[in-house]
Amino acid sequence: MDRFFQEALKSLTRYGNSFGAAPRLRPKWTEKLHFSIKDARQDLVQYLWFVGDYASYDLRVADATCAAARVFHKAGLDFGILYDGEYNSGNDARLAGEERLFEVLREKNRRSFAKAHFDEIVTTDPHSFHALKHEYGATNGARPVWHHTQILSELILQGELPLRRKLGTTVTYHDPCYLGRYNAIFSAPRKVMAALGLDLV
Q1: How far apart are CA 139 and CA 19, in angstroms?
Q2: What is the mean pLDDT of the segment spanning 153-178?
Q3: In the chain, what are the domain boundaries?
Q4: Which of 108, 134, 151, 174 has the most CB atoms around it within 10 Å of its CB?
């Protein structure tokens, strides 16, 4: 087995994330925001945002994570996160054949879900989306699970997320495998891009 992959599995086992970072650092990215995000374990929210490892820990992704939070906030979405109570969804561990590790991570998240107060789950991570929607089953309380592009496309359609200007840029979009091929979500991202005035090629 690849040495780097072995290290990732050890990190998942010890820290509950693939970066080997302390759980208390998971919400550190929120410090860049000018508003606070609710803790779904303490406040009732409509949407529990399952942020995921990369969006939480990878500094290269932090700006995009903050941008998503600002869009949710601007749209008036009632959302919260689990802060240090979130663990890796376990999707990649299961793919690697580490079924027991997947079950451990799923159980930790299930316990966090049980302590939280929410109606639906939204995630920006296709891997987490797939795991939460199809591999957690009733352990998430049988709540609906959405990818954020599904939520955004609906908000735009309903006029709850007005766009000030069209970008007028040509872009190429690659469908994430776990969003497109595995979950057949193709139209929602494209509707958002069309609303932004992007010419998709």
Answers
A1: 25
A2: 93
A3: 3-164
A4: 151
- How much is the pTM? 0.94
Residue 150 tokens read as: 């599904």
pLDDT per position as a tens digit, 26-84:
999 999 999 999 999 999 999 999 999 999 999 999 999 999 999 999 999 999 999 99
**CA–CA dist 182, 36 (Å, integer):** 34
Q: What is d(CA 24, CA 49) in angstroms, rounded to the nearest whole number?
A: 17
3-state helix, strand, coil in the chain (%, to 5): 50, 15, 40
Q: Give the Å distances, CA to CA, from 95 to 12, 163, 184.
A: 14, 39, 19
For 100-148, how does the pLDDT look when each residue is reduced to its tens digit (9 = 90+)?
Answer: 999 999 999 999 999 999 999 999 999 999 999 999 976 656 799 999 9
Percent of the chain residues past pLDDT 90, beyond the cut: 88
Segment (H or E) for 39: strand 38-39
Cα-based angle 179, 180, 183 (whole degrees, multiple of 5): 65
